[in-house]
Amino acid sequence: QDAIDRKEKRSETFKTVHGLETDTSALKTEELGRRAPQWVRDNLVTMCMRCKEPFNAITRRRHHCRACGYVVCARCSDYRAELQYDENRLNRVCQECYVFLTGRVVFEDREGRHKGILEKGAAEVSGRSLLCSSLQLLDKNGKGGTRGWFVIPQDDPLVLYIYAAPQDVRAHTSIPLLGYQVKDLPQGDSRHLFQLAQSRQVYTFLADTEELKQRWMKAMARSAAGITRMEEEEDEDSCDE
Fold first, then answer.
1. Triad 108, 124, 160: Cα angle to 5°
2. Which positions, given as ranges, span the membrane (predicted)?
3. pTM, whole model, 2 decimals?
4. In terms of C-beta density within 10 A (0-12 exposed, 13-18 middle, 19 or more buried), how is residue 35 classed?
């Protein structure tokens, strides 16, 4: 009952969050789902307006709740609710709006909660992936770097997830691939190198073989172009130990 009371109180207010005045963008409670909100601008917030976790370019990206317009992280917006203004189609909403719109109580620490990709084990994600294998992400000098288990999941095909090992329980980094350019680098000292580049952001990878390098370049190029499905023959046996 305490949890329900807290949720109802939050749903009734929708007031200032983290010192940001949102009077111009917040909807009245009775309007949630009935009228499209005015989205809070991304550049006005540096942290999730629900859980207060800071945003960054790689591991915690910004999303908008389609009901209230708040800027929230993926975990806090991992809910779907029907919105009347969008012909009752399911839309991404934050937990607060989900509770209000559906009348369902969400226990934040409940077992069996739907997990985001970053929280899923490497084996679970690799089992349904477009491509996964061991790679090395080199540092800016190109001399050292981090070796890990890299995965492009089928259910999130525009993002590259990096695990420390195939048996790891949580990804430590993610790289959104959309819009990047994939560049082949000349082979030197038997090193199979390629890059992801966008503006000033550059990632350099080292593959174990030339064949594996070419497979990764093709998969990343498709994701960077927004192509979310690979040919059926390429979907099979897509993981390399």
1. 90
2. none
3. 0.50
4. middle
Tens of pLDDT, residues 96-146: 888 888 877 665 544 344 455 566 677 777 788 899 999 999 987 767 788
Domain at 45, CATH number: 3.30.40.10
Phi-psi region of 71 (alpha: psi -120 to 50; beta: other; left: phi over 0): beta
2 in a structural domain:
no
Query: Does 135 lie in the same domain as 79?
Result: no
Which residue spans within 62-139 are E strands per DSSP? 63-64, 71-72, 79-83, 89-93, 129-138
CATH code at position 155: 2.30.29.30
Domain range holding 205? 122-225
DSSP assigned state of 188? B
| Strand partners of residue 204 | 138, 195
> Using CA atoms, how far apart are residues 57 and 120, in angstroms rounded to an integer?
20
Contact assessment for residue 52 and residue 44, using Cβ atoms and an 8 Å cutoff: no
Confidence of residue 60 (pLDDT cuts 50, 70, 90): confident
pLDDT at 196 over 80: yes
Residue with tokens 């061991």: 134
Two tokens at 187? 């082979």
